[in-house]
Amino acid sequence: MNSILWFIIAVLFIIAVWLAWRHIVLRRRLNEYIRALHQKDVSTLPVHVDGIEELSRAVHAFISSLDTQLSALNTEHARLAAVLDQMTDGVVIVDSQGRIQFANPASKKLFETVDPISRSIIEVVRHHQLVEAWRRSQQTRELQSESVEVPARRQFLQLVVIPDQYTDGSLLLVQDLTRVRRLETVRRDFISNISHELRTPLASLKALTETLQDGALSDPEAGPRFLSRIVTEVDALTQMTQELLDLSRIESGQVELNLAPISPKALLMSAGDRMKLQAERAGLKLCVECSDDLPNIRADQARLEQVLVNLIHNAVKFTRPGGEVVLLAESADTEEHSAGSGVRFAVKDTGIGIPSDDVSRIFERFYRVDRSRSGSGTGLGLSIARHIVEAHRGKIWVDSVEGRGSTFFFTIPKA
Ligand code: ADP
Alpha-carbon distance 158 to 322, whole Å? Predict the structure, then answer.
């Protein structure tokens, strides 16, 4: 009986020791496991750990699901960052104190600042109306928008301030409407110009026909005179319509250029010959200065001749008798146009020149420096010239001193 009791005690003791040892082992494994988790070394974490299989499996499943979510979040973050980086609208996040927390590249460009983070919105935006819009939104916690012109930066900006519902900060969206504004102005000016240009010849046509109806038709002397004035007005209208048509076809890319290798000298000689008589009649000397060894250009001969004729026509029109018009061509530097090296043409006159305020505008449609001095022009010639040159991937510009003369330059890529 005693020996059975001792046997039971021994067995129980062995079981107790085994359980205690197993408990110690399990605790150690659990500690190691937790330490590995702590060190975030998830890759070395065993999937099956003896004794804590269920826990290790659950942790593993949890970690892989976290991993998936994290990589989805990272992808989303990268996508968002790419959108914010590439978008042309500015996005700025400010805190409740007006300190900038985030600014995308577009906003840095719009506000012409390099590192706006942690700086004050007032300092970065530098426009009281825009700052006021942000203040209003801070006070009312409502969306505010404001459109302003920033003359110092020649910009027209629209700002939308959206208060953040979760923090006291706000999100600022900045749109650059400068181009849209300019296009609107050009369109409005175009319509008003064209109406104005049509009204004058139409009014004189009406006056002339009414005079003829009132009896001048039967007058042998006045009748033919009025008729010839009608023809002149109709010719002017036809020329304007033709120029407008040309311009719109070139602008919309409908005109196909017949590109071929052309000798710059031959081009200057041909345009010069066409305008020689007109220059002589105006009492001007017209000459060509061009070396024979210039490289050929790749151009549409007829269109480029039209450019030169327009420029020479203006030079003749705006130069007093006794003056001089020179046609030049020389080799041009690479940076003057994107299509590699080419030839720079120039039409130089000793005429009345262009006031410096008007120089930047004379290539616009219908723009004339002084209507009274421009005579019969439509203000479309230079606009057509610019479009033709740009269609050749070249550039056109002018240097002029009022009272001394003007030089119109344009570059054309070489063949
Ligand atoms: P227009 O048919 O009126 O000449 P353009 O577009 O050819 O139209 O020229 C626009 C304006 O630019 C002219 O009205 C004139 O005021 C000015 N301009 C152009 N070329 C010259 C020049 N060589 N000298 C002085 N002014 C010029």
Answer: 54
List ligand 1's pocket residues with C-beta within 6 A.
310, 314-315, 318, 349, 351-354, 362, 367-369, 374, 377-383, 406
For residue 374, the model assigns a pLDDT of 52
Query: What phi and psi, each to the nearest 5 degrees, are found at residue 150?
Result: -110, 90
Is 47 strand, coil or helix?
coil
Residue 218 DSSP label: G
Instruction: Write the CA distances from 373 to 238, 313, 366, 369, 377, integer angstroms.
Output: 22, 15, 14, 8, 10
3-class DSSP state of 254:
coil
Ligand 1 centroid distance, CA of 384 (Å): 12
Give the integer Cα–Cα distance in Å for 102 and 336. 38
Count the neighbouring beta carbons within 10 Å of the beta carbon of residue 78: 10
Q: How far apart are CA 383 and CA 346, in angstroms?
A: 17
Question: Rounded CA gap, 344 and 65, in Å?
Answer: 67
| pTM as predicted | 0.59
| HEC string for 282-335 | CCCEEEEEECCCCCCEEECHHHHHHHHHHHHHHHHHCCCCCCEEEEEEEEECHH
Interatomic CA distance for residues 4 and 2, integer angstroms: 5
DSSP sequence for 58-80: HHHHHHHHHHHHHHHHHHHHHHH
338 pLDDT exceeds 50?
A: no
Question: SS3 for 262?
Answer: strand
> Which one, of 118, 84, 126, 124, lies nearest residue 104 by Cα?
84
Kindly calculate the radius of gyration of the chain based on its CA atoms and give it in whole angstroms: 40
Report the separation in Å between the CA atom of 375 and the middle of ligand 1, taken as the mean of its atom positions: 10
pLDDT tens digits for range 289-308? 999 889 999 999 999 999 99
Q: Which of 197, 318, 380 to mutate to test the pocket of ligand 1 (most atoms within 8 A of CB)?
A: 318
The residue to mutate among 362, 372, 378, 386, having the most atoms of ligand 1 within 8 angstroms of its beta carbon, is: 362
